[in-house]
Batch of 3 targets.
Target 1
Amino acid sequence: MKYLITGACGFIGSNFADYVLSHEDNAEVLNIDKHTAICNNFLELKYYDDPRYTEIVMDLGATEKFSTYYWVDQDNLPDIIIHFAAESHVDRSCEDVLPFISSNVTATMNLMNFAIKHDIPIVYVSTDEVYGSLKLTDEPFTENSPINPRNPYSATKASGEFLVKSLANASNFWKYAITRCSNNFGRLQDNTKLIPVCIKKLIEGEPIPVYGKGEQVRDWIHVLDHCTAVHSVAMCLLNNDLPYHEFNVGADNEWTNLDIAHKLCGIIGVPRDKGIQFVDDPRGSAHDFRYAIDSGRISEIGWSPKMTHPFYNTLSETVDWYKNYSNWIC
């Protein structure tokens, strides 16, 4: 079983590749990653002498380089493509959208063309942010909700989705799936995201910068639950047993940013009045107020979250990991 996994030096991609290699004796993983500033070297350290793992540094947005690389040979094709690689920082997308177009749109187009040409199933890993924002009283998004991105990052992920679907339709190629996940947490997440930022600040004796009043709401899912969801979708896709092409992946675990800050203060042992500092939100409405998704559809193929709950326990385990292993983040 040969996996082509893009972005497996990133947070979710590295966890997924490790999950596959740890649970499937006959798995082979080809990791294609651009090696940006937020990469990690976890797989390189763990599998440096394992012939099942190969890592290639490549910018998938560079069409000419991607299309001529050696593994495109018909005798060395992957069985499935899992496309994690993406630029994902909202604030950075507001400052300069061009890298996001290259990574999230052009690279997706290149992979889809490759998948179609060689008839290889592909899973495009998207985000719940493509749906836009919810009010507190709104029902969670379903797969039939309108796509309504509200910042450049989510707009490029939505564009990637539209490319996948339109290229598939134009080519009569139906071996694809799109997953839209809620906010992930766990080991190996880079230090630009909320939970790692909070942990780092508190450990270093600094207060957590909380935007506004910290009222923004997110559904949090453990990264390994996300990995098992993507794996379940991929296996059904390989077996021609997917009832749908699009799946929401959430854990029904909504918390405000202030809730997260309070929990982390309690875990690390910092008084709230010393551990939290309210600051102005530099991007305002570019940061959506609430994300919540209905994961009923993916439960139909037998998936449910196993790691996320109880949330306080898995959050505590995440803190312990960052205390001991944060050197794995480049």
Note: The radius of gyration is 19 Å.
Target 2
Amino acid sequence: MIELGFVSRMSEAPSMANPYKNLPPSSFWKTGVASENPYNIEGIYKKKFSIASNAKVATAGSCFAQHISHALKNNGYQVLDVEPPPPNLPQELHHKHGYSLYSARYGNIYTVRQLLQLAQEAAGEWQAQNIIWGKNGRFYDALRPSINPEGFDSESKVVQLRSQHVKSVYSLFQDLDVLVFTLGLTEAWTHKFSGTVYPTAPGTIAGTFDQANFQLHNSQFPEIVKDFEKFHELLLRIRDGRPFQVLLTVSPVPLTATAAPSHILVSNTYSKSTLRAVAGHLQAQYPNIDYFPSFEIVTNPRLHSTSFEENLRSVRGEAVENVMRHFFKEHPPIA
């Protein structure tokens, strides 16, 4: 009888508060994902700051950043281009030669270390080494090997154009108000003796792979954060302390290949989850850094991989449009 009385008293006690009880639909998988329209996801992005209508925007990063850059231009944003294509180059060849993709002709910047070294080079605080690669008697800038598919006819031409490029990047960093940067990879090939980071492995587009000179480096969370913080500090110095804003994204495009000793699915998950964690950390720590969830919008399970082409890597045009619709809800097109 005593036990029955105890049970009775317990059942009559008021229920404990449920910390999930009054949360919005976006907080639950069922209502926020499973039954939500993936083309109109409520609450997936709330801007941390506004972008002024006259803000000068610079874009850089991995290949997905090209889509963002194009959409910003088409919606009235003042996207900088410090290395425009020459007038005599046909428009259909602009992208093939590295023009009109980003705010400078740096090609894809896949890693934060690559971004940091570019800024250090522009500021005259660091000198890249082993940057001229050859192929079939032609010469390539190893730090942006895809900007000229045929290469250049001399090493001196590579040096001359790189000097001009670095000066242009310095002026870009001085002039921008907002930097949109897409984090792409953690894996990178480096020069063993100088630490120079390359966007591609030697022997792919140009150059020759030599294990004595090159090694794979797969960055971890702490060093990526440290590299970006160094870049952030350097950008402030280049700008003489003038403030700027950063909008980070993570590329949803999977790795083409991995040189790490793991399956490509495992390597891809490591890379993207690490970069996503970095972006979240930086957003939380810096008032001038925001994160836009293009990665989550594209890889939403509700879409069942329809965001990608048949190769499951290339993002479909309609998926990019979906991403930017969510962006422009918070940062409306500029008339």
Note: Strands lie at 56-61, 78-79, 132-135, 138-141, 178-183, 187-191, 197-198, 214-218, 245-250, 289-291.
Target 3
Amino acid sequence: MNDRFEPMKLTRRSVLLTAASASAFGWLARPALADPEDVTAARTALFGDAPVTEGRVEVSLPPISENGFSVPIEIDVESPMTPDDHVTRIAVFSPRNPLADIAHFQLGPRAGRARIETRIRLGGTQKVTVVAEMNDGSLWSGHAETVVTLAACVVL
């Protein structure tokens, strides 16, 4: 056998260094999350400081989402969609994704109905908030919660 290669000795120091390295890597591979302040800042950047009233917006998410990479969402805004009373914008916000604003939609009276069906990525169990802007400038909101078993939006 070659004398230059010695078997690695298991010492207290090597065990502690390995454990510290493993825990540091586990801490670094955490999902990046937005804060509630980020959601407020994103809403303010998009709609200004106008007050938001709860109601007129119905949000549907599945109660449990097995995969956060593709979560179905349905948004219905109560509006006649006439030239005098219609939805102009809809925005979706998330407090647990790396970026608080998930999606923006532009609508007009010719849309006929203020309804959006799409899929979004979610970074974990959370309450998704939707804000709708009407043509008179008023803001309305609704929200829904879902439990995500496999989170998307994980930053390594």
Note: Residues 127 and 145 are 4 Å apart (CA to CA).
